[in-house]
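Minutes, project huddle
Topic: does the predicted pose make sense with flavin-adenine dinucleotide bound?
PN asked that the exact inputs be recorded in the minutes so nobody has to dig through chat later. Recorded below.
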Amino acid sequence: MTDETTAETLAPDWPTPTRDAAEAHLARVLPQLGARYAHNRNVDKGTGRHDAVSRLSPYLRRRMITEPGLIAAVLRAHGPETGERFLQEVLWRSYFKGWLERRPQVWQSYRDGLRADLAQLDRDSDLRRAVERAEAGQTDLDCMNAWAQELTDTGYLHNHARMWFASIWIFTLRLPWRLGADFFYRHLLDGDPASNMLSWRWVAGLHTRGKFYAAEAWNIAKFTDHRFSPDAADLAGVTEGLENQEPDGLPELQPLRTPVAPDAGVPTALLITEEDCRPDDFALGDLDIRARATLAASALRSPRPVGGKVVEFEAAALADTAQRITRKAENLQANDPAELARWATRAGARQIATPYVPEGPLRDWLNAAKPALDNAGVTLREWRRDWDAIVWPHATAGYFKVRKKLPELLHDAGLD
Ligand SMILES: Cc1cc2nc3c(=O)[nH]c(=O)nc-3n(C[C@H](O)[C@H](O)[C@H](O)COP(=O)(O)OP(=O)(O)OC[C@H]3O[C@@H](n4cnc5c(N)ncnc54)[C@H](O)[C@@H]3O)c2cc1C
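Predicted holo structure (tokens), as shared on screen:
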């Protein structure tokens, strides 16, 4: 069972984990998401001053606001040309999710590789100390120290800071990229398996072969408004990415998994996860719902302890979602996967209905729950959103292929 965590336990400068707060936040920042965003989005002004970007990611990641809902609002406020830059950024999220659906092996190799990296940390005390210093903000680079501090204090980093941090971690500090991705994932309020892991791979030169991201001193100084001015000599001159670590290249594209939607005639248990905090967008009224539960899964993000604020944010977001649907929801924890079947069986349900769970730790956990569900005669049924069904088939290669299709995607989604 989860604690009785509510939004009030989070510090006042943290985003409030409710749908109302998400919508109010969107209404507040919407006027800035046109020309102002396009001109200023690359500037990282530092903790508490990120008004050049939307800071919507903790809400978008949990679909407290959906991508099409946000896109429609931006189009209404700014039109397709002035709003284009922002829409292109939102599309990165959909692209990365779709890309990982097409190559789930990349998630599996990250997960296995991370375990190997953590075992290496146990054996290699120099490496362990170097990682501890980087995470604690005790390197020789002020900028890295400030970003590590901001990440652990606030659960947020500006996109540019994420790129610089990842690049310096990999190429200057020469630390294993998966440990850096894990550090981010344990602390980011918007932590997302696809966006986080694939962004780290992109910086490392593993996502688009031959293309890596090198943090440069002048760029950091310029886009932090000279809050930081690292010495160019202190940053590695990067000439190649980590392609050699994966000599076989990318695994083959897989067909998209095609979920089966819940069946109206079957006794149902409704499962609410942070993958989609708007299950009420689907036709719940058509179902014979016998039980409802939230499933807290933040702890699955890493074998290491996940930041307390991440756990709190998830718990409060799930509580907010549940109370929109029902007065009575159980609080499940993603511990023993077999518990899922026991919960459904106790309720007399023959199917579990939930919005689609994409590749990542929760998908792994649901896969682990399948044998017990099969034994109990309970099927897992998922709704997939139209937006995902429209974008994901195109996420087969680089992002720019998808970006070129933006007008077509908006048209297919009825958003033009
Ligand atoms: C190393 C690294 C790790 C990252 N890890 C995550 C993560 O775990 N979760 C996450 O949501 N984003 C991640 N990002 C992407 C991006 O940095 C954040 O989405 C963005 O900074 C969130 O802040 P915002 O809402 O103010 O962004 P805005 O600039 O206001 O963008 C609006 C929205 O567009 C989407 N978006 C923008 N840029 C990207 C991007 N490059 N990739 C994917 N979506 C994007 C986000 O949903 C964001 O909320 C990562 C980027 C890097 C370089």
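Observations noted during the meeting:
- The chain has a mean pLDDT of 95.
- DSSP finds 18 helices and five strands in the chain.
No decisions taken; revisit at the next huddle.
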